[in-house]
Amino acid sequence: MNADAPGAGAAPARPPAQDAGQADRGRERGPDRQDRDRGQRDRDREPDRDRGQRDRDRDGDRDRGRDRDRDRDRDRDRDRDEDHRGRDERGDRGDSPGSGGQDDDSDDARNERAEREQRQGERFREAMGDPLADTGASGGTRASTRARREAQVRFEVRGNSGVFDRSRFGHAHFGDVYVGGGGTAGAPVFGMVPDEELARLRQVYRAPNGYQLLKDVLRNRRVLLLGGPPGTGRSTTALCLLDELTTASRTRGAEGADGTQNDGRVTRLDPSAAAHLVRDLPAIVAGVPQGGGMILQLPEEAGDWPVPQELHLDALSSALAERSAYAVLVASPSSPGGGLLTGRYGRQCPPAPARELLSWHLVRGLSHQAETTESGVLDAGNQILDHALFQQALGIRLDSLRPGETEYVARLVVRHVSGGLSRPQLLDSCGEVARRQAREWFTGRGAVRVPALGDDSGRGAEQSADNLDGWLREMAFRVALAVLDGEAFSAVADAADLLAWELLQARDPARAPGRPVFTENLEGLLAACRADLSVKDDDTFGGVPLPVRAVAYRGEALAGAVLAEVWERHHSARAPMVRWLRSLADDPRPQVWTRAAVVAGELCAADVGYGFTELIRPLAAADAPRRRFFAATALDQMGGREPHRAAVRAVVRDWADATDSELCWTAAIVLGYGRTEQDTRYAVELLGDIGSRQEGKYLQVASFSLARLASGSRATEVLTVLNEWAAELTGEYRNLALLSALRIAWARTDELWEPETGASGTAEDEDRGPQGGDSSSSGLPVHRLPPAVRPNRRSPSVRWRSTTLSSAPRAVTEETDRELELRAHWPLALAVAVAVPGAAPPLADLLWRAADTHLSSEGTADALRDWLRVAEEDAVVPGLDRRQRIYAFEDHEPVAGAELDPVPGEILRALLWFLPQLMRQRRDWERLLWLLRTMADAPDEPLNEAFASHVRDVVGAGLPGRREERS
Fold first, then answer.
1. Which of 132, 594, 739, 906 is in the most buried spot, having the most CB atoms within 10 Å?
2. Is it the case that residue 478 has pLDDT exceeding 50?
3. pLDDT of 883 higher than 90
4. CA dist 440 to 150, 167, 333, 433, 447, Å?
5. pTM above the 0.90 mark?
6. Is the bond preceding 770 in cis, omega lying within 30 degrees of 0?
7. CA dihedral in degrees (647, 650, 651, 656; nearest 10)?
8. Element (H or E) spanning 925, and its range?
9. How far is the C-alpha of 235 from the C-alpha of 329, rounded, in Å?
């Protein structure tokens, strides 16, 4: 700028080079560049770790908070400098009308000022928002403040700092006072079993299978190691064995081998004295009565006692023989002494005859009731035990009940028969058996005392760590089995190892846990968990059923009881369990991550605030589709019943309208399940809106959910709307309808259909019986298919006219579930057309449009080809010569002894009933003829000519002037 120009003195003088450099630097470090740099720094600082790790990063968070404060200070300084620079530039250029480029500079300045003001407004609006708005819940700051205020009112911290973390201590130091503890183990403590207890056991005890073998081993070897989990009757069996073998010694005048008088009584030895079996065997033998017996329960956990070996049992046997005495040692298979069960002295305790015990307790309980004088009361009690509702409420197989549980169950039945317990109370009380077992496993007798870190009460650190590992691994296996009950043993074992690692890390973060190699006791673990191995078919590999080794609880109620016990009564285990469930979401096996998602939904329903925040919300916004599918499954499971359904519905509607693509994707999956949104039309419209966004970005997930939504009782409603889109709309809505039609045509029923009721064919349904209407011998309605296939009377040349209705009623859920369950192996389209009332016309309209459109015609032809293949295989009569196929529609001799359930040809009957509804124009008929010819002429697995001719004859029967086309 010329110094002599008017107004030059209004601006401070600057060296031209300095002004240019500052302008360049201003452009280089402009607001856009600053924002990009600051955004990149913020993204680099954003932690990617879970809630449990955030507690260890609080110092880092404070540092980042200071960085953000410094960034804000720099932003304010930059904005202030830019304002001064803008005023300076306006002063430099404002009074120079003759300078070149004045208008361009003024426009640039105005644009820059407008952008700066917009950014400032955005920052202001962001500052006014809720700081906790990104947590997924509105009013986060208000809720946090209220919780803090209530906590400050309720809690007051005071008192000294002396804390005892266990009831025993070896030494302690209080100020200048030192308290020491110690001592040596004294003599073993014995306690005689009262004769009254032995007499009661003689009346109550029922000998199981294999009892005589145990008796022979004890008589010949004097020592028996009896194995079994706690509560299985092992101690009772041991007392009965000793009582029978020592009865003769209690007769008057009997003498031992050394001439001393035989006592013949049975005594118990304190379990803490198990170390004397190795260190001081004579002290133990001296405490056994002459000609009597001793029972000793070996400790459940490792400690400062040496585990006896077979040589110690040999010495004990020789010493007891000199006294004509016997000893039974009781050990759990998973305890340190469980390894001896495979030796000479070891035997597994056979299970008690639960049904025999139930009957005995029932007779004994009813004998004390005055009402038992009437005939039939005992029969009524047995009928209750056999009733399906009772067994379902009990949740444990009757033959798997333990002795104490049989007595409890029999007492409940006696109270119900005598009128002291109503039917709902009886069914609810039955569930207490599983709840008691779970409580015993985790907090009762089954939960050993876990040593605290740094425990030096007579045991080494290595033994303490090994004991902790073994106990936590057993607990982890129970939880993993509860999640994957009935699945492959390998999947359960892998999941248990992952959970054990999480639990051990939570217990001792500084220690890296390993895995036991070649030290597992599988039989002992299964016995301790009340689980069994079995072989089942798994069709997840290529769709072919293959045998796998599966593991399951001996009752469905145990899985739910275990999960409820851990989730509701052991809050410290929640964080490891949540991390474990999130890791299962990455498992590629569908049976693993799907089962884990269902369990996650149930746990979230028990504690919505914790579960939604820690489990569902993080996975719903994940990048991996499997994680989002996991979150959708869990959310749908949580909203399966009220009052959670209304809350989940609100979340899903909010996510469906979200700009976040991951949340929108997750909402589409939830809508496809059909349980959250009761308004079918609204759910379909939401899916249509999702599928039509961003040039079809969500067409895949939206069409999948629409096909799943159309595979149940809502089929007629969904198909009606899809027809409206395919007929009247263009663009993405039409493409979405055609894609949904192809998915329905391609899928098998069991690929998309899920029962909409609690369970199909449950015990409650059996108790109610058939609810009117025509039914077959199996109690199922038979109004779907006509008794015989009628020829098509409609000419292929007749123009199509829409038969869809503006509104369609929803089918009865229970009936639809029963019908679709029978047709789980059918093509989904045929099953829906047959099982759902009113679904065939709109389904035929939709499939006809898909076959008549160039985008989907090839896919529709492939689906029809698959229908014909399935129908051909289904129509073959079993039990005849495989070299010559005989179809159900052909004349043949009845096959003696052949299993004809289901009846051959059911799929073919449905296909021949449905195909004429697709013949709307002449080219539809010609397309079918061409398809049959190409399949019959195929070099690889050609279609049987007799079958193809039958399809042509039935579908084309009665078509005027078209008989020559069927030749």
1. 739
2. yes
3. no
4. 35, 21, 17, 11, 7
5. no
6. no
7. 160
8. helix 922-936
9. 9
